[in-house]
Amino acid sequence: MTSLNIRQIRTIINRNKQYEYIFNIIGLLSMLVGIVTLFALILDLCGDGLARISWDFFTSFPSRRAEQAGIFSAWVGTILVMLVTASVAIPLGIASGIYLEEYARKNWLSDLIEINVTNLAGVPSIVYGLLALGVFVYGLNLGQSVITAGLTLALLILPVVIVSTREALRAIPGSIREAAYAMGASKWQMIWDHVLPYSTGTILTGIIVALARAIGETAPLITIGALTFIAFLPDPPITGQFPYISFAWLLAPFTVLPIQMFDWVSRPQASFQVNAAAAGIVLIAMCLSMNAVAIYLRYRLRRKIKW
Questions:
Q1: Which of 144-179 are b and which e, b meaning 16 or more Cβ less than 10 Å from the residue's Cβ?
Q2: How do residues 224-253 score in pLDDT, each as one tens digit?
Q3: pTM to 2 decimal places
Q4: What are the boundaries of each domain within the chain?
Q5: Taking the domain 54-306, which CATH number applies?
Q6: Rounded to the nearest 5°, which phi and psi values hold at 245?
Q7: Which residues, at least 6 apart from 195, have a Cβ–Cβ distance to it below 8 Å?
């Protein structure tokens, strides 16, 4: 190799390093723009609504007087709706992802299903609201209830859970599957004992993203008839009489924090704008708490695998 060729190789390497450095700078600046914007919005929200947060704000029902209005029915409704959403979307999404990735034959039908699932992840949420209005409210006569809202949001995030589950399973090396088969494991034993434990962290990441989207949705819930003013709570799920468990709350009317914020923001009084900002802080705190639980579970699972 001549000295001229060596110089050319060094020139190409230095040029590629410069391009890599420039790309790193651009990526860092892009990330900082998003982070700074997010922190600015959160600080502005806290500056407007932090003083309004109190125990009475959490335990009071909505009112026509801003000083007496609270989010009691809204945050309880949010928890109940998200409970239904998670109970439906997570098992169905993970099971569907496992079937499509591990059991389904690779043919035109599976390719068609994969394309449609991926496209459904980008469908506007209002479309799911219209679908739920026709199927759940009028078709199944579930009415404007907690279970209707939970099923609607479950349909909304189901494609995200399926796609994240498939990507997590696809990232597991084939050698792990082959080693399990070599030890005499069945297909389900290979998935349950080897593939799923290694992919759980990535699956939980997809679930975090999906639930974070669902908790802030407003359009589909307005479409199915969520109440903007509700001064009562659904029936408790646990009762003092046998069988001690009640499902009447599933068919109760509901409201959620995004709907309550929408109602307050639409009013001209400045005091209601403060209430909306305070409700936004609570919604962010609920979302972060939910994400923190999922991140903790992911950390424990990964640590267990390492040991």
A1: bbbbbbbbbbbbbbbbbbbbbbbbbbeebeeeebee
A2: 877 777 777 777 777 767 777 777 788 888
A3: 0.83
A4: 1-52, 54-306
A5: 1.10.3720.10
A6: -125, 130
A7: 102, 169, 172, 176, 177
